[in-house]
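Researcher: For the annotation table, I need structure tokens for Vta1 C-terminal domain-containing protein. Please keep the output clean. Sequence:
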Amino acid sequence: MAAAPAMKTVTQFIKHSTELRTADPVVSYYCLEYAVQLSIPIVRATTDPEVRSYVFSLMDDVESFRAQLADNPTMSSKPTSRTHLLTFALRIFATADNEERVARASLKTATTFLAASRFLEVWRGCFLDTDEQAEAEGEDEVERARTLAAGRDCAEKIKYAKYQAARILRCVKTKMDPNVERRTELEEEQKQVEAEVEEMASAPPPPGIEPEDSSLDPFSDRTISPPIQGGGYYDNPPAPAPAPAPVASSYFPHVSPSAPERYDSPPDTELHAPSHPTPPAPVREEVRAKEVTEDEMQQARKHARFAISALEYEDVETAVAELRRGLAVLGAR
């Protein structure tokens, strides 16, 4: 059944559900469930039989879809499905965000930002329940606090994703480069890094660290003795062997046995390792971490939780991105 005109606000989520029906049935189901949630107020506000029939059809599809996923392990518990959907949405967001941050934004990047904002919206709509519902489902306060913190972060990401999508689309329509500002910012950061490196290289060494001195080289006084004339590295080399006798015409000449020649063994020599001056112990500089506020600590914990959730689904790219954001909040470079 075709969507009614009044249902245009929810058709985008139905479209994503159809696209992911085979690739990720769990995400597909929640997209369809969220579409039904958005449809209920529309049904209550209209008497259009076409709209009501369409919404009732969506409800039947949701019930049927949920029955098909009864044996899916991801749907076995709410925390599991919640983590799965959030990880999926963050991975889509990170894909678009990484392209924009390295000045490679395109029309595809804008489309990815829009899709990420919708998946994050689905997560908020399906899992940010009221406190009464959370208590009824047995969710403890710690888990509830984590969910609320993730919800606030998702709200910020939704606004950012929609802004970037609109900005990039506007540049594409006006035939402008959407990466001009980001490219300029990256060039300025590169110049700043180069200036800092040059300043560090030209600065005098810290107190307590002596400049490099060749006398401190433990191998500087090691020399290789020339070979002893007439016999290599031994004092009494063996005498040269006598010249062999002429070979007889037979292939197996008769050779009279004779005692083997004796060689004087070289005298025992005791090897001593050369003495070297002990290099001074390196001086460590004390590095003090920046003072972190409570808000920054909370934000760092949030990124760490997202990284752990991503690793549960082997999404290394999203985990690394979230960990880097958390370290940046704490002042790490």
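Researcher: And a one-line annotation?
Model: The chain is about 60% helix and 0% strand.
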